Amino acid sequence: MLVAAVLFCTAPAAASSGAAANSDPDRTGRADGPVVLVGVPGLLWEDVTPEHTPALWEMAEAGAIGNVSIRTATSRTCPTDGWLSVSAGQRALSDRERFTVCEPAPEPVVDGSGATVPGFGDFVDQNARSVFSAPVGLLGQTVRDQGGLTLAAGPGAALGAADESGRVDHYVDSARDLSQERLQGVSLAAVELPELTSLYPTESDEDDEPQEAKPEDVPEQVREDTLETLDSRLSALVRNLPAGATLMVVGVSMDTGPSQLTVALTGEMTAQGLAGPSAYLASESTRRPGLVALTDTTVTVLRTLGMDPGGLTGGRAWQTTDRPQPAEEALVRLVDFNTAAVVVGTAIPGFFSGLVAIQLLIYAAAAYAMHRYSWGQRGKRAVVLSVTRVVALAGAAFPVASYLANLIPWWATQFPLLALLASVLAVDALVVALAVAGPWRRTILGPMTVVAGATTLVLFVDLCVGAHLQMNSPTGYSPIVAGRFYGIGNIAFATFATGMLMAVAGVSHSLISRGRRRAAVVTTIVVGAASVLIIGWPGLGTDFGGVIALIPGLAVTTMMIAGVRITALRMAAVAVVSVTAISLLAWMDYLRPVEDRSHFGAFAELVVNGDAGTVLARKLGAMLGTLGNWHLTLLAAGALVFLFAVLNRPGRWRIGALQRAYEYAPTLRAGLTGSLVTALVGFAANDSGVAIPALALTVAVPLTLSACVWAVQQSEREPAESPTEPPCVQKA
What contacts 323, CB < 8 A, 6 or more positions away? Predict the structure, then answer.
């Protein structure tokens, strides 16, 4: 049935990887006139109101709208970084003396009607050497090579529209200097509206260090007045646009402070003003209605002009999809989505610090309870061990609870951060209650199997319906960080894979205890194959490293359940199967149209062209860099020490609690070993590095602890002498 479910899920993904998108490759239409790209640093949808920005509000009612993920080659997107990324169609960056201070774009040197950006070659060279190999100048060069003319209004806009030599055909100092005459014959007009940026000037502190003003330093009334000025200038610009022009308004960066999701808006100019479609924007980069990436802007401009951007861009053309009506509801959803992203981004450091602290406390308390607490007070000790088991299950259920919490609209409350925490804790309690509520609570692996099975089922279904629970989850992915927009994230993969392997171990124990080992093996293979398929299928899980990591762990678990000896030759064959499977999936994706490919197909293209080395080097550097994350490294190390030193330490039963649990449930060893193999391979195969074993152990070790506590309780009820046969054999 799981295989059938996967095939049902993959059918729509194969038919259209962007379920909400139109099928026309020119998704936003081709322009009859110029494309006018207006970059507004710092513009958020919460800024757009009928009172302070009436022109923008009317455009939002008529046009296609969405949030923009502005992540560039660094975590701080300044206006210069944003315009360079528009120029390259790939994540770009600019050198600056202080990471926390945005430096202005260089003033162009005017030459006739055009201008040249000084030092543009340095931007080109620097980004060509960067991890993203961003081809700065691509946008302007492509327009000129295909017979078009470029115009820029403002220094930042000149960075975005310049060709590879740094030149734009026409240049004016600001949007106020634009007129219909200036736009005649122009293909691309890039316009900068920097009013919000001017609110946050750079000043020097007592140590003469440059410091940027913070959002809270600017009174709300001042920002509202600035928004009104910005809106009036945009309105004046729109009145000068000829009919047939395409208007694109993009928040190319933040004005100050941490990154957020900015504004994207587009429509065609008519004699009556901006015309629709009244829709949400989306793209194959994000595959989410109402969300596009900054690098999508480049290819969208070129496609709208009927020009081919080539295969160098990292973005995909904007598409349109249905949105709620009226416009107020559509904008509220965009604002809520940004709120959720900001809150989760703020919560993540504390979330993982708390996760590490709680897990280590669980291990310390469990070690004390199992080996020292109340040996002479049987009743009191029984209560303590029962509580320890429940706490262990709660720790294992924490990741899946963080996903299910997104079923609750915590972001719409007055205190979203507190609401998020309360939602996670409430869902965690429900999962644990289910685990200890039924008759399975009296078996060694029953509660463990319920928690592991719930983890597997929730993420499996989530992948089938678009991975909505992972987006803006503390253990999912963020559109602000922009490491991934769809499919299964690396942390979610660690949670899902571990939950699946531990769940099949629990189910297999139940089947084998009834003498049905063959059914246990078949169940493991079917569930495992369905998991590999949904993780690796482009448009669903789309996890390259996940396929490579899960197949070896699944193979080890299956062989141990089947009673087959694990040899080097067999593991070599498993490695060949892993590489073959991922190669086949990547090749299948590569055969699809460029606009519909996931990063599987994009990587296959790099391999075919011999350019995969840059991506692999970036992934390797990111993986090794995670070892510096002391939170996750400490979490993984603490879990391993607890598992193999504490749970394996002999107690009054003459063998460790872990070995005793293996006697009662031999398949526990299979699930745990497979999970450790997947975690180790996942560490090497993913750029998240140490996050994979850390989160895998966060699920696996507490689940194992719950089984060990049961084994300790059972041992204390039995006679002091050891049985001559393993308990599971006696009972069978």
Answer: 65, 278, 279, 280, 289, 290, 330
Q: Which two tokens stand for residue 47?
A: 């800024």
Cα 82 from Cα 69, distance rounded (Å) = 11
pTM above 0.70, yes or no: yes
Residue 668: closest CA among 559, 554, 560, 517: 560
Which tokens in the block code for residue 248? Answer: 């694109």
β-pair partners for 35? 188, 246
Q: What is the dihedral of CA 66, 72, 75, 77, to 10 degrees?
A: -70
Structure tokens at 166: 């740094």
Name the helix (H) or strand (E) containing 343: helix 327-371
CA–CA separation, 434 vs 452, rounded Å? 12
Cα separation, 106 vs 93, in Å, equals: 14
Cα separation, 534 vs 517, whole angstroms:
26
Do the Cβ atoms of 194 and 175 come closer than 8 Å?
no
- Average pLDDT of the chain? 86
Q: The dihedral of CA 695, 698, 701, 703: what is its sign?
A: negative
Question: Residue 67 has which token pair?
Answer: 């949030």
Token digits of residue 137: 């100048």
* Residue 248 CB-density burial (10 A; 0-12 exposed, 13-18 middle, 19+ buried): buried
Residue 115 structure tokens: 């201008």
Rounded CA-CA distance 471/479 in Å is: 8
Q: How far is CA 411 from CA 315, 399, 417, 590, 632, in A?
A: 29, 19, 8, 38, 27
Point out which residues pair with 114 in neighbouring strands: 111
Torsion 602-259-278-473 (CA) sign? positive
Q: Can you tell me the distance from the alpha carbon of 529 to that of 180, in angstroms, rounded to the nearest whole number?
A: 61
In this predicted model, what pLDDT tens digit does every residue of 278-326 receive, in sequence order?
999 999 999 999 999 999 999 999 999 999 887 667 889 999 999 998 9
SS3 labels along 281-308: EECCCCCECCEEECCHHHHHHHHHCCCC
The per-residue DSSP string of 601-649 comes to HHHHHHHHHT-HHHHHHHHHHHHHHGGG-HHHHHHHHHHHHIIIIITTS
Rounded CA separation 5/37 (Å): 44
CB 550 within 8 A of CB 497: yes
What percentage of the chain carries pLDDT values higher than 90?
57
Question: In terms of DSSP H, where are the helices of 29-106?
Answer: 54-62, 79-88
- With vertex at residue 209, the alpha carbon angle to CA 205 and CA 213, rounded to the nearest 5 degrees, is 60
DSSP 193-242: --TTGGGS-EEE-TTS-EEEPPGGGS-HHHHHHHHHHHHHHHHHHHHTSP
Does the CA dihedral 299-43-194-113 come out positive or negative? positive
Which amino acid is present at 13? Answer: A
Identify the three-state secondary structure at position 190.
Answer: strand
Q: Which residues pair with 189 in a beta bridge?
A: 36, 151
Burial of 224 (0-12, 13-18, 19+ CB in 10 A): middle
Phi, psi (deg, nearest 5) at residue 419: -65, -40
Residue where the block lists tokens 């940026």 = 197
With tokens 């399975």, the residue in question is 440
What digits encode the pLDDT tens for the residues 14-61? Answer: 444 444 444 343 445 566 789 999 999 999 999 999 999 999 999 999
How many Å apart are CA 50 and CA 55, to the nearest integer? 8
Chain centroid to CA 562: 37
The runs of H, that is alpha helices, within 20-119 are: 54-62, 79-88
